[in-house]
Amino acid sequence: MINKRIVCSAVCGLLMALSAWARSPMSVDSVIAQRMHERNIPVLDGNSVKFFYNGHDKFVDLFEAVRGAKSSIHLEYFNFRNDSIAGLLFKLLAEKAKEGVEVRAMYDDFGNCSNNSPIKKAMHDSIRATGVNLVRFDPIRFPWVNHIIPRDHRKIVVIDGRIAYTGGMNVADYYIEGIPGIGDWHDLHFRIEGPAVEELQKVFCNMWRKATKENLLGKDKYFPKAEIAGDKRLAIIDRASGKTSDSMRDLYATMIDAAHVSIKIINPYFVPTHRVRKALKRAIDRGVKVEILVSARGDIPMTPQTAQYVANNYMKRGATVYLFEGGFHHTKMMIVDDVCCTAGSVNLDSRSLRCDYEINTLILNKEATRQLIEHFEQQKKHAFVMYKGWWTEQSFGHRFQGWLGNVLTPFL
Question: Which residues carry out catalysis?
Fold first, then answer.
């Protein structure tokens, strides 16, 4: 006869185990994938990802892929700086256009005007004369204030609908040569092959239609049947002004809130909006190890001081902050729990999170994430840890700029 006490004990143990399992937190990648599903953002398997940590490697790979293009080349950049690397790229694009490849290239006119070596009208027209369909997004016209926001800050290249490049790099010599007085320019870009390429092609085609009225969507030659290219699970997060306005804030807040163990961030303009700031504070308070790397120097006045001011507040709360001294870090990436990451064009500031057209890639893959973790650890070797009291040791002007920039967060 079965002992009732033993049966009762076994049942109670099983119920307790089931209860503990039910209370156990979901893995960060499961939480994020579920959130993407709720927002109707496809999470796609079968992709490959190749990372580039400097401009030389990115442009060598990109130029080789462009040379191999058979039908179409689509480029969308915040700016093409009028220098040697852009000249070489446009020369190569002209050769492909002469071969019969459809070449479409778009740059943001504000991004063009705001750099110190812009494409002038004569150069623009001469490029178009070679067969490269070059257009400006939202040309700057009187009254200029109407054109401050939103701007197209994305960086996308799609070749034959099968190979895509995206990340944080525009087209400029300083990605290779650095900048006098600042040093080497560090950034992150990557090449994607597989089903996720179609999502990047859609983003480009939507923006091209907005700028030119030409509709490329639904045309099979730009959307070939996707092929399995690897084992990486990706989602393309697009911020389109007026359509998916909160997509980036939601992505970062969701990832941070899902973290159980660690969060690693590199971002050049670290001035998060309210929702992201609150999520980071919650993460620190519940014991998540938060590491933030920002540059000691910057390319835009007041931005490094502001990022350091904000980062110092997180340091006092419990985060570890690294000040990078090996040049300027333009990289925009975040790693959560060592299992997933996001990177792309998004700065952690109000302009990127609330205003501009942006693109980020979400990578739900441990192996790819491990590569970025290794990169993060390497960058820490060129930085020093912000210590308590460091901020008060800075000059009054330095601290005032940081304070003022933080006050102006909604406008940065």
Answer: 153, 155, 160, 330, 332, 337
